[in-house]
Write a structure and sequence with these properties.
Elements: H1 5-19, E1 26-34, E2 39-49, E3 56-62, H2 68-71, E4 75-83, E5 86-87, E6 91-93, E7 98-107, E8 112-122, E9 124-125, E10 140-141, E11 145-148, E12 154-155, E13 158-159, E14 162-163, E15 180-188, E16 192-195, E17 200-203, E18 209-218, E19 223-227, E20 233-237, E21 240-245, H3 251-272, E22 279-285, E23 292-295, E24 298-302, H4 303-306, H5 312-323, H6 340-358, H7 360-380, H8 396-418, H9 420-433, H10 441-450
Parallel strand pairs: 1-15, 9-10, 21-22, 22-24
Antiparallel strand pairs: 1-2, 2-8, 3-7, 3-12, 4-5, 4-8, 6-7, 11-19, 13-14, 15-18, 16-19, 17-18, 20-21, 23-24
Length: about 450
């Protein structure tokens, strides 16, 4: 028996147990959406259990759409708040991206409290084009798409260094959260539909639709709202429903995204272990500065890339973003302090996918281009490393050259030195044990050391 197969019999069960933790935060939300205007109002009841080592006098939440660099003119405001049934006066910090909820009495370790919030938001209006060159299109109303990524008050993680309260950086990813359980209703005009597909849809007396979602162990619950006439292409792989939502204009891209996305689930399930989510939606959306964006159970592909699906890079986008379902959504990490921990792995995963499902030549081309970009970046920025925090990178090119190209290049070298059994054995053990958790680079290196790999090189500080 191949050594990797020893793990496979128990991985699904262990992942399921990890995702069902009783102490996971629970969000119960109702959101009424004016999709045409790109505005919404909502309420959230959030059950939070104190798993920190200290009694807490306050709890912090993130309002990431107020991060102007990536979100442009989008806004998220909390209009009322209570804790344990008592109204509280909240405070804003970090350019209005951090909300502090004071507690009337300290929350002891192991105790649970319920927060109740009323909130409202507005997506940036990009129907005439993006108003800023820095935004990605994460919470944006465009001609036929409304993206709602990180659109609600999101509990800040508590790490070894304390609450993670950095405002979204001008580079990289804005979402950083604990895995949580969600019960959500999304109310929309019947001319629109929400993606991911809901568990149930019912009509309200006023003619609007109520879409109901129940999700366990999701890192975030983000939506794309589309014209109700748009229908997905669908496939099922390894028990995971894959749906591709692309415009009629880009029908070829939609079919290719579905084919490549489904094939990537096959490849990654064998290499990393089973995906602990039952569905993944791939959605074409207007994006700027990003070819793709990952969320839990959902990722975006830029409309500009969908216009040219035969470009070899299209396969890279789809396979890279699908890999984030393992490394971001299942296994979390801090995208400010350690962006390499998901981006390097997702980039290297896309090479593995290309080699196994497309062609070795396609994989080799990506590896060669990345190695060259990494070498140029090292000469230009000798004090920066693959494992540097996002604020150490001078610009997007340096960030990409180190975190994407450099990290994948270093992983390829480690893989070559260890061989398949040791490399994938360590990676599967890491993916299994850290599912629904927030991992660190130090933990990652421990798994490779314990598996017989020398914790050395650019990824482990030697």
């Amino acid at each position: 028996m191949h050594k990797r197969s020893i793990l496979m019999g128990t991985l699904a069960a262990l992942l399921g147990l990890a995702l069902a933790g009783a102490a996971a935060p629970h969000y119960e939300m109702s959101i009424a959406l004016d999709a045409a205007a790109g505005t919404y109002e909502g309420t959230a009841a959030i059950a939070y259990t104190n798993e920190t080592p200290l009694a807490l006098d306050e709890i912090f939440l993130r309002l990431v759409p107020n991060g102007r660099d990536l979100f442009g003119a989008a806004t998220l405001d909390v209009t009322a708040a209570s804790a344990a049934g008592g109204a509280v006066d909240v405070m804003l910090y970090a350019e209005d991206t951090v909300l502090m909820v004071p507690l009337a009495a300290p929350l002891a370790v192991g105790e649970t409290i319920e927060l109740a919030l009323a909130f409202r938001g507005r997506a940036a209006d990009a129907r005439g084009g993006f108003s800023s060159t820095s935004e990605y299109g994460l919470m944006t109303r465009s001609r036929d798409t409304l993206t709602l990524i990180g659109f609600y008050p999101l509990l800040a993680p508590y790490t070894a260094e304390g609450w993670a309260l950095d405002p979204p950086a001008p580079l990289g990813d804005p979402l950083f959260a604990e895995a949580a359980n969600y019960d959500v209703t999304l109310i929309v005009d019947p001319a629109f539909r929400g993606v991911p597909a809901p568990d149930t849809t019912t009509s309200q007396p006023d003619g609007r639709l109520q879409m109901t979602y129940h999700r366990a162990g999701w890192r975030d619950l983000s939506f794309v709202v589309l014209d109700a006439a748009r229908a997905p292409r669908e496939a099922v792989r390894r028990g995971v429903s894959v749906r591709a939502w692309f415009s009629d204009e880009h029908a070829e891209a939609g079919q290719r995204a579905l084919d490549r996305g489904a094939a990537a689930i096959d490849v990654y399930s064998d290499l990393f272990g089973p995906l602990p989510f039952s569905s993944v939606d791939i959605v074409e959306a207007p994006l700027q500065r990003a070819a793709g964006v990952e969320c839990t159970g959902l990722f975006l592909v830029a409309a500009a890339s969908a216009a040219n699906p035969r470009d070899p890079f299209f396969d890279v986008i789809v396979s890279h973003e699908m890999a984030h379902q393992w490394f971001y959504a299942a296994v979390g990490n801090d995208p400010i302090e350690e962006p390499w921990l998901d981006e390097s792995l997702a980039t290297y995963a896309s090479w593995l996918f290309l080699a196994r499902a497309v062609s070795s030549a396609a994989a080799d081309a990506q590896a060669a281009a990345s190695a060259a970009a990494y070498e140029r970046a090292r000469r230009a920025h000798p004090s920066v490393r693959v494992t540097s925090p996002v604020y150490d990178f001078a610009d997007s090119d340096a960030y990409s050259s180190f975190v994407y190209s450099g990290g994948a290049t270093e992983l390829a070298a480690l893989h070559a030195a260890l061989g398949d059994d040791a490399f994938f054995g360590a990676l599967q053990a890491y993916a299994c044990a850290q599912a629904a958790r927030i991992a660190t680079g130090a933990l990652w290196c421990q798994y490779f050391s314990d598996a017989g790999a020398a914790a050395r090189g650019a990824l482990c500080g030697r």
